[in-house]
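Dear colleague,

Following up on yesterday's call, I've attached the two folding results inline so they're easy to grep. Please treat them as preliminary; we haven't cross-checked anything against experimental data yet. The first protein's sequence and structure tokens come first.
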Amino acid sequence: MRASDFKIYLRRILIIAVVIYICYLLQTSIFSRFQLAGVTPNILLCVVSTYGFMKGKRHGILIGFFVGLILDVYSGTYFGVFALIYMYIGFLNGLFKKQFFGDDLRLPLTLIGASDFIYGIVSYLVLYFVRQRYSFGFYVINIILPEVVYTLLVSIFVYYIILHVNNWAEKLEKKGSDRIGTY
């Protein structure tokens, strides 16, 4: 790996890390104070889904794993559960990379909504069903569906911000590789 490739790769990692950090802070501080129907939006799931279908399976898996690991460290529940859930969500969204078109909102909103719904069901199975709390219908109606709706509303803004950050980063990468090629 050339030094210029390493710089580009490191810059991409730092940009993604900053996006994850900002979204984590938003999810845990600001949006935790603005609950609607007793739920908060899952902004980190928007990040994992967005990078998954924008960049592909590998990015989705890696970003999902690290986002889940951050949540595992700070949640205090079963360690590794969120890393595994988010990793699979990133992988599943990465399968749709070829169908992705930047400005079309239908695919991103559909995938983010489906990912949040799957996340809610898996979270119920892992965190509640195991403890013999069998009120699945109540959980779907009062927690999963309101969270999906709230996440979808917030994800419109989060998606466009991530899309613009990604386009900006790609322009920087292209500009840097063009400069390197001229010397």
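Below is the second protein, in the same order (sequence, then structure):
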Amino acid sequence: METEKVGLFEAIYTQRAIRSLKPEPIPDDVLAKIVEAGTKAPSGGNSQPWAFVIVKDQKSISKIAEWGKAGFMAMYDRALERLKEGDPLPFPRLKPLVEKLEEVPVFIFPCHVRPEGGSASPGGQSIYPATQNMLLAARGLGIGAVLTNLALGYSDEIKNLLGIPENVDLMATIPMGYPDKERYGPTTRKPVSEVTHWDRWGEMR
């Protein structure tokens, strides 16, 4: 497995959503390493209420892509209805990914595993530190990834397709592949001084 020489803070400061992905497959050992990074995240009481479904099967990917496109286009059409003259088209970065969604080589679904008969609970939030670990691991391994909710409007259909039990909730959809036109690099974010309040709201430094 080839890895980049990327330190922790370099990975954090250069991580970005990669939506332009090559269709070539990702080796299983690389995917396993990414998921392993997810399992190292903290969780409440070390409950580790998570599972990760890696989808590489082309027939399943095609069906998930179909649902992802349908959900996205419904959202896109609603956004178009709210546009005013001169407004840019909605979701300009996500739309190219959706248009080629069936070419994505891997989907990973981070899941929250509830006790049998249990309802959704705040424990499901533990999936997000795990997901961020996975995104950083993908960055370090030179794999492109983006956190989305694509196709989650069809969660029941996806669960049925993939044999996911009733007590397991899909929490996110991560399309993953080798970067194509986009690359990791420095990101543009608000300065810390603009988003940090010291002791009381409004006390900025």
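For the second protein, one point worth flagging: The radius of gyration is 18 Å.

Best wishes,
A.L.
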